[in-house]
Design goal:
By secondary structure, the protein is an alpha+beta fold. The strands form three sheets. It has a five-stranded mixed beta sheet, with helices on one face. A three-stranded antiparallel beta sheet has the order 4-10-9. Strands 6-7 form a two-stranded antiparallel ribbon. The longest helix is centred in the middle third of the chain and has 32 residues.
Length: about 375
């Protein structure tokens, strides 16, 4: 059952998504919807889909690879399901370990979290949404090897690009007008990528792309994807975890038992599920259940929000849920590379908010409208 604040957040971001979640709350594990495709709400079936890369692909209609191929060319589309994807993930794995993630967050966000804690201790009211957008931009640019820039503008560009995909639930084929808008956004968003691609060192993602011999246009596509995923979903997961902990009135429990912090982070990401829907293209006929036979060319929508939230409402004392595991990050070879970074970012923010030694209070919030990733446009917090 959605809380009132989460329901308002989802409705403001995408009324169609909100309606989809409400409509399938009590539906079966997999249902065929005309002109949309198959909708999966069961976490075990969703994981099966995400792990069967031969049957369910990202490159065909319905997958993000299909979107990115229209923006960056067919080679980009082939990348997601090809050997170059596996090679890149293997090459950059050391940049995304738990230790590397904590170091990245400390390097790019640590001083700002310290100032946030000082401001709250002094009685100030802080717009955490604005802070999170800036910090996410700093983190992504550092990871990619991009120079410092206007991080608010970077987030806005990523937000604008993501919002163009709002209509892709029924089709990932972009109309010419939308494609033209998307190209203009991408050109500005990746203006610094060519230079960084040529000069960035091996400790950066763009540097690794060059070392592997990936074409510059593919590197541009990956940089764009990381900006959108690294800022949009990271900010959403952080802000919504902060709000969920506040609304569930479990801050005092966390303050009394700091060892519950990893559980609070996991619960926040589970309930928020920043990527509430994941799409795949059916590449070959398959029987997903005894009553669900999928045919090549169809689409699958994994309603991960329902799959994850079936376990119950936000509760930092909830035991580990084996069925969902970390489905909010996906699964299989496309499991989000930045999972450890997201966890480190949420944990660092919660620690900063509680550094004064007392709970924080949300004194104002505004939901982001027409957002692919549901989030807060404004979240005002102060120390109790």
């Amino acid at each position: 059952m959605l809380t009132r604040n989460e329901a308002r957040l989802l409705w403001a971001a995408n009324p169609w998504l909100y309606a989809l979640i409400c409509a399938f709350r009590h539906a079966g594990p997999v249902t065929r919807v005309p002109r949309v495709g198959w909708v999966v709400t069961d976490p075990v079936l969703a994981r099966r889909v995400l792990n069967d890369h031969a049957t369910f692909t990202m490159g065909g209609e319905g997958g993000v690879g299909h979107l990115w191929a229209q923006l960056f060319g067919p080679e980009m589309g082939r990348f997601f399901d090809g050997p170059a994807h596996t090679e890149l993930r293997s090459s950059v794995r050391d940049l995304f370990t738990e230790d590397a993630a904590r170091a990245l967050i400390a390097r790019t966000q640590g001083p700002h979290h310290a100032r946030l804690a000082d401001a709250l201790a002094g009685g100030a009211t802080v717009d955490l949404a604005d802070t999170a957008r800036v910090l996410a931009g700093r983190m992504v640019c550092d990871l990619l090897g991009l120079p410092p820039q206007d991080y608010r503008r970077l987030f806005t560009l990523g937000e604008n690009l993501a919002s163009l995909a709002l209509g892709t639930t029924s089709s990932t084929r972009l109309p010419a007008r939308v494609l033209s808008e998307a190209h203009a956004i991408v050109d500005e968003l990746t203006a610094a990528v060519p230079s960084a691609y040529r000069s960035s060192g091996p400790s950066t993602l763009l540097g690794r792309c060059r070392m592997l011999g990936l074409p510059e246009e593919v590197a541009r596509g990956l940089a764009t994807l990381l900006v959108v995923a690294g800022t949009e979903t990271g900010v959403s997961g952080t802000l919504r975890t902060v709000a969920l902990l506040h609304d569930a009135r479990q801050q005092r429990l966390l303050l009394d038992e700091p060892g519950l912090l990893p559980d609070a982070v996991r619960e926040g990401l589970r309930v928020a599920t920043p990527a509430p829907v994941i799409g795949r293209h059916v590449a070959r006929d398959v029987r997903l259940t005894p009553h669900a036979r999928l045919f090549a060319g169809e689409r699958v929508l994994l309603l991960t929000h329902l799959a994850n939230n079936a376990a119950g409402p936000f509760d930092i004392t909830r035991p580990y849920v084996r069925e969902t595991r970390q489905l909010w990050f996906g699964a299989g070879r496309h499991l989000c590379l930045g999972a450890a970074i997201a966890r480190a970012q949420v944990a660092a923010t919660l620690r900063a908010l509680h550094t004064p030694g007392r709970p924080y209070r949300i004194v104002g919030r505004t939901e982001a409208r027409r957002a692919l990733v549901p989030t807060y446009a404004r979240l005002l917090v102060t120390s109790v």
